[in-house]
Amino acid sequence: MVDTVDSKSTAFGCGGSSPPEATNSRNSNKYSFVTVNNKILRGHKKHMIIKVMTYNLHKGKNLFGRRYDMDRLKSILDQESCDIGLFQEVLGTHKLDKKIIAQNHRLTDDNWEGRTFAKNSIVKGFEHGNSIVSKKPILEEKVVDLTLNRLEKRSALLSLIDLGKIKIQCICTHLNLRKSDRKKQTLMLIDFVKENEIQGVPIIIGGDFNDSDGEITNLLIKKGGFSFIESKYKELTFPSFMPFLPLDRVLVKNLKVIESKAGSSKKYRSYSDHLPLFYKLEVSDL
After folding, report:
1. Which stretch of DSSP H or E encloses residue 208?
2. Which of 81, 112, 143, 163 is the most exposed, fewest CB within 10 Å of its CB?
3. pLDDT values of the chain reduced to their tens digit, one per residue, 286 residues
4. CA-to-CA distance for 135 and 260, rounded, in angstroms?
5. List of domains in the chain
């Protein structure tokens, strides 16, 4: 849930090789801000708390290639009360059977106003790529192609989200397995951000970086101007049944990280080969 609170409050919010394409769908239900204090007292600043998740869905299969119950996963994710979701390895619509519901739609309901999807490839008739979902409207989306070889079709999806008081840019991506490729993709990503960032607008970038040694994270910090705060427990996300690698990340600009955690292995190991990451972020000076 998105919360707007004053600075004295201790309450937090609940937490195929075709080029990439972006699509956006919205529904008519409105999702309102919760205001703890409608007035700004002299000397007080308002700030907003948002909760973001990033999750590699592994095309709806677990670590052992068995298809998992997407509806059951939705009910578990609903308990996390996130405002924005960044999904990788999402299966979208099927080329022949349009009755099959895309995975980013199956994991969200009418409380989610915005959904964008960037197709990277076709997998067994399904569009396959990245998705951003939001409980607030998505105003626009852009995609940059990060593909470096014919076997790994990659992109980054950027969505501009209207949170009411402010707007926020979110970027979802999935980088290659080879370190040399990841470095090239990260530099491409940094250029993409610089070309599209809006002065003063907070930015969130998240996804599966395959960044076990933290080198890509450091590159985004030093050359991209992002910040990254890791909890003392370190967010280990792979493999989901016994995680020992921190492959997934969320980095921010113009935002404060309040809390970060990986989903528990006991709770999520029956689903994807990755664990989800959850971040609680603060936007101040509203």
Report:
1. strand 203-208
2. 81
3. 666 555 443 333 333 444 555 655 544 333 333 333 333 334 456 788 999 999 999 999 998 889 999 999 999 999 999 999 999 999 999 988 888 999 999 999 988 999 999 999 999 999 999 999 999 999 999 999 999 999 999 999 999 999 988 999 999 999 999 999 999 999 999 999 999 999 999 999 999 999 999 999 999 999 999 999 776 557 899 999 999 999 999 999 999 999 999 999 999 999 999 999 999 999 876 5
4. 20
5. 16-30+53-276 (3.60.10.10)
